[in-house]
Write a structure and sequence with these properties.
Strand order of the largest sheet: 1-2-3-6-8-9
Radius of gyration: 18 Å
Distance between the termini: 48 Å
CATH class: Alpha Beta
Number of strands: 15
Structural class: alpha/beta
Strand content: 15-25%
Length: 285
């Protein structure tokens, strides 16, 4: 028996969260869970995460890990909430230290040190772990961010923002630690996994007339990705990606998302009135 995947879509941020169930049908990991957040009021809710949690409970799954593919800039992580409800350990790539080092300075986050210790575990390239008899391998896939990783299990790979759908293309590389050349080389590693490997996305931004899809095969991406199809040279991709990134606005939720996600999904500490605050740096980002 092989592993299986159940994917959950968060329409407001176009995010896909995934549950990978191991070969034994009992143990599982949750990948990139989403916390609902209303930017106009600063209110958070767990409606979307609760749907995922309900499904896991109905299946009587034992959650071993809650995995982040990177520190997201476009949605808030629900990892601590999922952990409080289902158990498991929160993991991310060891490159998170660099991301923390930058953004802790930007937001003057003096409550913790940028060593990754707020996460339960930091993964290095090539690390492996078992989920119900299924071996999961961690692949470092930087470029979009310096901490981006892919989790590979059987013929499935959870790639975060390393690629989007073939009709949308590739992720931006202009965040701190981003590098278009690294992204190109990371995608070549994904393509080397084999044509039938299914690449599970963190986001899908479908054009009108197409339903959001959680995954595409390597063959579909290599043959049809508008930015990283077979035959495009690294220099040409880097030139295109760099020029394209210059015209992009910052993600709408980057300010709250980054502050929370580099803290492993925890809120900043409450101030003396008992309220936690999101900081907005003026003329900085």
């Amino acid at each position: 028996m092989s592993s299986e995947v159940r994917s959950f879509h968060h329409e407001p941020t176009r995010t896909w969260s995934h549950v990978l169930v191991g070969a034994d049908g009992r143990h599982a990991v949750v990948i990139d869970p989403v916390l609902d957040y209303e930017a106009s009021s600063g209110r958070m809710s767990t409606t979307t995460a609760d749907t995922l949690i309900k499904w896991c409970r109905e299946r009587e799954l034992a959650i071993d890990w809650i995995l982040e593919t990177h520190a997201h800039a476009d949605h808030l992580s629900a990892a601590p909430y999922v952990k409080s409800q289902l158990g498991g350990r929160i993991g991310i790539g060891e490159g998170i230290r660099k991301v923390q080092g930058h953004f802790f300075k930007v937001f003057n986050a003096t409550d913790i040190v940028p060593d990754g210790s707020v996460f339960d575990h930091l993964f290095a390239d090539g690390d492996t772990f078992d989920v119900g008899g299924t071996c999961v391998t961690v692949m470092s896939t930087p470029g979009h961010t310096s901490d981006s990783v892919t989790y590979v299990a059987d013929d499935k790979a959870f790639i975060g923002d390393t690629l989007f759908s073939p009709d949308y293309g590739s992720a931006r590389c202009d965040f701190p630690g981003g590098d278009a050349g690294e992204l190109y080389r990371s995608v070549q590693r994904l393509y080397a996994l084999g044509d039938e490997t299914r690449l599970y996305l963190c986001h899908d931004y479908p054009p009108d007339g197409r339903e959001p899809q959680p995954s595409f095969t390597v063959a579909e991406q290599r043959g049809g990705n508008r930015h990283l199809h077979q035959g495009i040279a690294e220099a040409d991709f880097v030139s295109m990606r760099t020029q394209r990134d210059r015209g992009l606005a910052l993600p709408e939720l980057i300010i709250p998302s980054v502050q929370i996600n580099v803290r492993a999904g925890q809120l900043p500490p409450p101030e003396d009135n008992g309220i936690a605050y999101i900081k907005v740096p003026i003329n900085t980002l």
